[in-house]
Amino acid sequence: MSAFKGFSRPRYGVAEVASSTILIMFGLIIVFPLVLPFLFVFKTQLEYAYTPWSFPKSLIWKNFKEAWEAVQIGQGLKNTLGVSLGAIVCTLPPAALAGYVFARYRSKVTEFCFYAILIGYFVPIQMVLIPLFKFNIAVGLTDTLPGLFLPMAAFNIPFWTLIYRSFFQSLPKDLADAARIDGAGHGKVFSQVMLPLATPATMLAFILVFIAAWSDYFLSLIMLNSQALFTMQLRVSQFLNAYGTDRMPRYAAAAIISSAPTVILYIIGHRWIIQGTLMGAIKE
Asked: Across the chain, how many H-helices and E-strands are there?
């Protein structure tokens, strides 16, 4: 018993219990929409009509196959993947380069340019939606996938420029100075020394930009007209608008397939999100 002398159990007061309860409630609110489709997806339409909120009596997997064909999920996945990768390719390189320049070559000019770019972060997309649509028509990008992921990149670049700038500022300057003494130019210092050290920020940007582009609905609804170019979110929404709750098990299957890539990516890359946060990737 002497070994436990001085050991005191943590005390939970009213404030701790209240904060824990609130956090649990918020967690349930976030998890509930992810779990809800699993109550419907394994049921027949008749079983759903009679007992929608009960657990399925048996696992009926054909709803996934029928949803794949009815919603044309294969084409939707292809389009959404193209949009997500396009948004990543058009966001990360310019944001990383701009963040490095603003962090390492600070002057009145670069500070002015940085804050001018940062203004774009505070401009809601709804404010510029009509000019953006007219611009796409003028340059011939209307109803195309580039006409969708290029605006996404334009709205993402200010934020990730801020993230990269903050991250590069946290790195010691001695590394860049040592590389310059060895004869490396500005391009090599950035690409071979500084950018590899910013891997946590890059992975954080890759994951969050991909998830945001994959989950986009509003901008896709405005910019895309041809059904052949519809992303997953538009296809699932179109299916729900056409059939309502009459095909809820198929709709649940389509919703699960649509959200699966982002959930899997988050599970695989959540350590990068934590690491990027802890190493100062979201700190100014």
From this structure: 15, 0
Instruction: Record the tokens describing residue 90, joined without a space.
Output: 């058009």
Residue range(s) defining the domain that contains residue 95: 70-278
The answer to whether residue 44 is domain-embedded is no
Distance, in Å, from the CA atom of 55 to the CA atom of 216, rounded to the nearest integer, reads 31
Nearest to 261 by CA among 62, 44, 83, 56: 83
Residue 249, domain CATH: 1.10.3720.10
The structure's pTM equals: 0.85
- d(CA 5, CA 169) in angstroms, rounded, equals 47
| Residue 239 located in a structural domain | yes
pLDDT recorded at residue 284: 47
Longest Cα pair distance anywhere in the chain, in angstroms? 81
Does the pLDDT of residue 278 top 50, yes or no?
A: yes
Mean pLDDT for the stretch of residues 271-277: 70
What does the alpha-carbon distance between residue 137 and residue 225 come to, in Å, rounded to a whole number?
13
- Judge whether 185 lies within some domain: yes
